[in-house]
Amino acid sequence: MSDLSSITSRIERVTPEIAKRLLERVVSSGKLDQASVQAFESDMRDGRWTLNGAPIVLSPDGQVLDGRTRLNACIRSGASFDTLIVQGVDIAAFETIDSVRKRTLADVLSMRKENHGRALGAALKILWTYGAGGTPGAGKAPTPTTLLGVLEEHPGVRDSIRPALRAMPLLPHGCGIALHYLASAVDPIRAGQFLAQIQDPITEATDDPVGQLREVLMATRGQGGARKQTYVLAVAIKAWNAFAAGKAIKMLRFAPERESFPRVAGELDWGPLSRVVAPRQPQAKPMASDQINVRVLMIDPALADTLLTDRGPNRTVSAVVIAKYARDIEAGRWRLNGQTIKISASGRLLDGQHRLEAAKKAKKAFPAIIVEGLPDGVISSLDIGRRRAMSDVLRERGEANTIILASALRWLWMIRTGVVLAANSSPSTGELLELLDATPQIRSSLKNVAAIREIMGSGIAAALHCTFAEKDAERADAFFARLIDGVNLAEHSPVRHLRERLIRTRASHRVRLAEAERVAISIKAWNAFRTDRPLQLLLWRNRGTAREALPTPV
DNA sequence: AGGGAAATACAACGGTCCAC
DNA sequence: GTGGACCGTTGTATTTCCCT
């Protein structure tokens, strides 16, 4: 298979100079995600970066298809990094890479078999934000790599899991762990007593800090969400400060709009916490390339099944994603695109679950690169980059109006497959590119509906124009021209009904028409218009016994 | 008109509670 | 210890605004 034999792979140490040279030949022109660049940059500079099996993907003649973020981070960090380089991937194949679902910290921790993974993850996030001087529960979450770094620097956080259990369920576990860890840096014995007294009070005094905290916690019980976390932590820290100093509190509260987030008193003595955000010393790491094995091959359903069996804990799978990939594999649309399937030295499947499940579902083989022998820990650095949107792919192809074109293609796909009704399925990038090749006239549909913005979305309108124009181009143009200008419309004209309905529902944000209904009444109006039939009423029933299917355009 | 920036709607997610 | 329900937030896709 020519697809496979043209691919070569190697493991290389990329220096900033090499990165610079590679970046001179970049295909993609989209914007870099600066947050990701920064995260990678600090990982590389501080020696946290490990060879993770995610490749730099090059075309046959050496153009960079994937890896811009990592290469830019390398230059900024001034440090070298080890990476797999895959060369020989066709640009057209690379375009079909679908956006990848991101991993969460809880995913990573449970894969590492940490106990109380979810609570521990919440606590690490709180500690990191607090250590950086921010407000826990608000703002952007740090990357899983950063948080695992915090855990590595502060293994003692695990020792706070048990004491924090004693304050459950009044004090949420994640908050309890973080609070106990912070407080025990000041006074470990008092910290344990504080947490224990939250559940089992030892005094009835109304100005007792723990009693005050209990009241706040009971009052906020039953509420979820991050805003509660900020509030609970703030009052808990205030209560702890009073408790540790042996002071009474009359009224315990926190007003986020007027107060800054409280700090635990005695901060200067906290060696451990001040290091939470401090960079680690770079460490010399042995190049692992001799243990790493890269294979390019066809993966059939039987092999996929083997690879999926006993491969350790992984993310919960998404049925929509598997179905999407399976359609691509079944239609032969799945090409070797440079994405790798990653297996650790201990035999755990680190990346590729959805693709392998899709091969089983499609009962068909697909070409892939398998990387074996990776360190188990690299999973935390996978899948944390920015998703590649359809509009990015189109822009790289040199298309114009890419956001609206992407939207129009998506709508056209939904109309053609009837998914508008189900809404539990979404098109793959490959499917949309194929649709564009098969329906090039959709580009001109965009122009036909350019002025429709007052009436309906440009994407959906272009998809509908394209659909109707296949039946009768001239009448489709006329239909949309009248829909836009509203000129010369008789009382029972279908266009008039549609126009008024769309404008009415668009003006009021609260009564937005369901997407399926918008498509359905547009098709009904078109069918009446095309057959010169006046309409008394434009109605489409999507519920009840007289439920209608999506109408077919005539 | 074209294209980027800002605004918006909504799906997906994170975090907690609760039942088992 | 885990999984579903619930609530609020975040991120993405899409729409609208606005400048050239």
Briefly characterize the structure:
The protein contains 26 helices and eight strands. The protein is an alpha/beta fold.
What does this structure look like?
This is ParB/Sulfiredoxin domain-containing protein. With 554 residues, the chain is α/β, with parallel strands linked by helices. The protein folds into 3 domains: 2-100 and 292-375, no CATH class; 106-274, no CATH class; 390-530, no CATH class. Helix content is 48%, strand content 8%. It is built from 26 helices and 8 strands. The strands form 2 sheets. The protein has a 4-stranded mixed sheet with strand order 1-4-2-3, with helices on one face. A 4-stranded mixed sheet has the order 5-8-6-7. Helix 16 (319-330) packs across helix 17. The model is unreliable at 98-103, 222-227, 268-287, 383-387 and 507-513 (pLDDT under 50). The chain binds a DNA duplex (20 and 20 nucleotides) through residues 99, 102, 104-106, 115-116, 118-119, 121-122, 137-138, 140-141, 169, 172-174, 221-229, 387, 389-391, 400-401, 403-404, 406-407, 410, 447, 450, 453, 457-459, 509, 512.
- Residues in helices, as a percent range: 40-55%
Q: Beta-strand percentage?
A: 5-15%
Q: What is the straight-line distance between the termini?
A: 44 Å
Query: What structural class results from the helix and strand content?
Result: alpha/beta
Rounded mean pLDDT score = 71
Coarse shape: extended
Largest sheet: 4 strands, mixed
Count of structural domains: 3
Number of separate strands:
8
Radius of gyration: 29 Å
Instruction: Compute the number of helices.
Output: 26
Physical arrangement of strands within the biggest beta sheet:
1-4-2-3
- Which spans of ≥5 residues are poorly predicted at pLDDT below 50? 98-103, 222-227, 268-287, 383-387, 507-513
